[in-house]
Design a protein that fits this description.
With about 300 residues, the chain is of the alpha/beta class. It has two domains: about 90 residues, Alpha-Beta Plaits (2-Layer Sandwich), CATH 3.30.70.260; about 210 residues, Rossmann fold (3-Layer(aba) Sandwich).
Length: about 300
C-alpha cells in the first residue's frame, strides 16, 4: 500500500520573512531529507500583506511531531499553517459554503440590530455564549430576536451601509467562481444581509433567517425554520445532491459552534478565527490572515507529480 504524501502550507500575515525563518527552525530535524519548497503567488491586491509557501514533506514524516513543533510557533509569528495529504490538496473541489457573521463579515448582525434597539450588551452576551457552544442555538436565537421587538426595519439599511467585509473575501470568491466552484452562504444571521453579499460577490445561493416585520417594525417573533447547525448541514447535503457533487469535493468555512456540523461534514472544513470549541475539532484553521487564506489550502494537480 502506498504511503500518504503530505504537504505543509504556511501563510504569513503582512508578508513577514521572520515568520518563515522560525518555520525553518521547526523543519530543521528534516534537514537530512528532501523538503521541496514553493513560493506561492498571492493576489495582486494583497501583495505586501501576504506570503505563502508550500513544503513538500518526505514520505514517512512524523506528522504529529511536526505539528507539535509548529504549534509552539503560534505565539511567536503571525502565521497560519496546515499539514494536509497531497491528495486532499489537489482534489477538484466543486462546492464551497460559508457562514456569514464573523466569517464573511466582521460582526454579528443580530448584535448590530440590538445596539440600535438599546439592548446591545444583553444580546451580545447571549450571542457570545451561543457561538461558543454554551447555549442551544435555537433557544438563544428566539430569546435574542424577542429583544428586538419594536425596532424600525429601516435600521437594516443603515447597517448595510457600513457592513465590515472580512479581508480576502473578494479574492476568494472571485477565484472560486472562476474555477467553476458553486458557492453558497449558510447563515444563522438574517436574509437581507446575506442577500446583500450575494449581490456584491455573486454567491450562487443564500440561506439565512427571515426578519419578521409588521408595519415597518420588527415584531420580535421568529419565522421558521431557524437556520441552526443541523439546518446548515442539511442544506450542504442538499446542494451537493442537487448539483451532483460528491461530499468529499465540498468546502465549508465558519467560526461558531453552529458551524461545526457542516465543517465536519464537508470534504474540507476550515475554521476561520474560530471559537475554542471549533478549533479543538477542526484541523484546518485560519487565525492570522483573511479568508483568501482558504485558497492556499487548495493545491494544483501538478503537485501529484512533483
Amino acid at each position: 500500500m502506498t504511503e500518504s504524501r503530505y504537504a505543509l502550507t504556511a501563510i504569513s500575515a503582512n508578508g513577514e520573512p521572520d515568520a518563515f525563518a522560525l518555520l525553518n527552525e521547526a523543519l530543521r530535524p528534516l534537514a537530512n531529507t528532501s523538503v521541496d519548497v514553493k513560493v506561492v503567488p498571492v493576489p495582486r491586491s494583497l501583495v505586501g500583506r501576504r506570503s505563502a509557501r508550500i513544503y513538500s514533506l518526505p514520505v514517512g514524516v512524523d506528522v504529529d511531531r511536526l505539528a507539535q513543533s509548529l504549534e509552539r510557533l503560534q505565539g511567536e509569528a503571525p502565521m497560519d499553517w496546515a499539514i494536509q495529504t497531497v491528495a486532499s490538496r489537489v482534489r477538484r473541489y466543486r462546492l464551497a459554503v460559508f457562514d456569514m457573521d464573523s466569517t464573511l463579515i466582521q460582526c454579528e448582525v443580530i448584535d448590530e440590530l440590538a445596539r440600535y434597539a438599546g439592548v446591545g450588551e444583553q444580546v451580545a452576551a447571549i450571542t457570545d455564549r451561543a457561538m461558543r457552544g454554551d447555549l442551544d442555538f435555537q433557544e438563544s436565537f428566539i430569546e435574542r430576536v424577542a429583544l428586538l421587538e419594536g425596532l424600525e426595519a429601516g435600521v437594516v439599511d443603515r447597517i448595510l451601509e457600513t457592513l465590515p467585509i472580512t479581508e480576502g473575501v473578494s479574492e476568494l470568491i472571485l477565484t472560486l467562481r472562476a474555477q467553476g466552484v458553486y458557492t453558497a452562504i449558510l447563515s444563522g444571521g438574517f436574509l437581507p444581509f446575506a442577500q446583500h453579499l450575494q449581490r456584491q460577490f455573486g454567491f450562487d445561493e443564500v440561506h439565512a433567517n427571515a426578519l419578521d416585520i409588521d408595519r415597518g417594525v420588527l415584531t420580535g417573533k421568529v419565522r421558521l425554520p431557524i437556520v441552526d447547525g443541523d439546518y446548515k448541514r442539511k442544506v450542504l447535503l442538499d446542494i451537493a445532491q442537487r448539483q451532483n457533487i460528491a461530499l468529499e469535493d465540498t468546502i465549508a468555512v465558519g467560526d461558531g459552534a453552529n458551524d461545526l456540523p457542516m465543517l465536519t461534514t464537508a470534504g474540507l472544513g476550515v475554521a476561520y478565527a474560530a471559537k475554542p470549541v471549533i478549533q479543538s475539532q477542526v484541523d484546518l484553521q485560519l487565525n492570522h490572515v483573511g479568508l483568501d487564506g482558504v485558497l492556499y489550502y487548495l493545491g494544483a494537480a501538478s503537485e501529484l507529480n512533483d
